[in-house]
Amino acid sequence: MYWDGGWAWMAFMPLVWIVLIGLVVWAVVRLTQGPAGRGTYRDDGGAYRETPEETLDRRFASGEIDADAYADARERLAASYRPRLR
Fold first, then answer.
1. Is 35 a domain residue?
2. Looking at residue 25, what is its pLDDT?
3. 17 with 24: CB under 8 angstroms?
């Protein structure tokens, strides 16, 4: 069977277009969504919200709280996540 280069390319062209369109859609969705990979979670309304740690980090970075308050709050957050024995 004779395979002409143009015929082989045309046979796979729909697959190439599907992959390209899929990549573009994935990139647009990924860029327009919130930072989903850093521990953020969704509330009931479907919007992305910061975790308590992210809120604390943001407040410290903006200068709202000082280093002592930051360290104290971090310790309290870490303690609240430890399993409690009843």
1. no
2. 93
3. no
